[in-house]
Design brief:
This protein has 2 domains: 60 residues; 219 residues, no CATH class. The chain is 46% helix and 15% strand. It is built from 9 helices and 10 strands. Strands 1, 2, 3, 8, 9 and 10 form a 6-stranded mixed β-sheet that branches. A two-stranded antiparallel sheet has the order 4-7. Strands 5-6 form a two-stranded antiparallel ribbon. α4 packs across α7 and α7 crosses α9.
């Protein structure tokens, strides 16, 4: 019988047992440490998630409360001509594009501007600021209400207004708006099939906001970057509009000037005081109109 196959002595067996017990003890301690680490990480993650959720909830509640006030709307509908002139094209980055098969859209002899969007949509929220500012140069709104885009979208909680219950009056043009869903994605208004067909022909992905200018040109998406408005109050945004040098004024009023130049194409340059304004002419040149 070889040396390796000989029976081990009692001392050897005891030593082996003690070594095995020590190994298991170290393993148990390691598992215990790892388990404690995992628990600690889960606790930290859970606390961070809870804090983040609470912060988002508080921001959402604050945004909804701020949207209940309509005081800011007067500022947007009465931008001084000097502010438009100071901004020109500003930082507007979306230019109207020609429709492939243009067909003049009119109602009662007036050109029609059509908007399709939704209340949950942050980019629609941005674009309404510029739209209201531009359209208020040709007519007047009634029934505009403060609103805020969805909290679970990015960028979140864009302060804005909704066209849902509004009415627009102008002797120069007609404005038709369709808010297709509310802030919680529930259905609201359905655009007519004719305009939906036009939209689908150039916008197969259904990007919103979508604007049709008299059946001749259109824009997809926001025409300036207003993402910095996320979680701001509408009053704070309106305050920036009173400062033409502010980033948001350059975006909103610049986009409004570009829209105004496009609308002036539809109204044959009327009203003259608006269509011949310095900021509008600059915006028209910048956009190639």
């Amino acid at each position: 019988m070889s040396e390796k196959s000989q029976p081990r002595s009692g001392k050897e067996k005891l030593a082996l047992m003690q070594a095995e017990q020590a190994r298991k003890s170290r393993q148990t301690k390691l598992l215990s440490v790892l388990a404690g680490f995992v628990v600690a990480v889960l606790v930290v993650v859970g606390v961070a998630w809870a804090v983040s959720s609470q912060n988002k909830k508080e921001q959402d509640q604050k945004a909804k409360a701020a949207a209940a006030s309509n005081k800011f709307i007067d500022t947007v509908t009465s931008i001084p001509a000097s502010s438009f002139a100071a901004v020109g094209a500003g930082t507007a980055n979306g230019r109207p594009q020609p429709l492939a098969n243009p067909k003049a859209e009119t109602e009662n002899g007036k050109p029609v501007m059509t908007y399709i969007g939704a209340e949950f949509c942050p980019y629609c929220g941005m674009e309404r600021w510029a739209m209201v500012a531009a359209l208020s140069r040709f007519g007047s709104f009634s029934g505009l209400q403060g609103a805020v885009s969805a909290a679970d979208d990015q960028p979140a909680n864009i302060p804005t207004m909704t066209f849902l219950h509004s009415k627009y009056t102008s002797k120069y043009l007609v404005f038709n708006s369709y808010e297709t869903q509310d802030r919680n994605h529930n259905p609201l208004q359905t655009p007519p099939k004719a305009i939906s067909k036009v939209m689908a022909s150039v916008n197969p992905n259904g990007t919103i906001p979508w604007i049709d200018f008299g059946g001749k040109t259109y824009t997809n998406g926001a025409t300036y970057d207003g993402s910095s408005m996320s979680n701001m109050s509408a009053e704070d945004v309106a305050a920036q509009l009173k400062k033409p040098s502010s980033p948001l004024a350059k975006g909103i009023l610049g986009a409004a000037n570009v829209m105004t130049a496009q609308l002036c194409e539809l109204t044959d340059g009327k009203p003259g005081a608006v269509c011949k304004a310095k900021g509008v002419i600059e915006a028209a040149g910048a956009s190639g109109q």
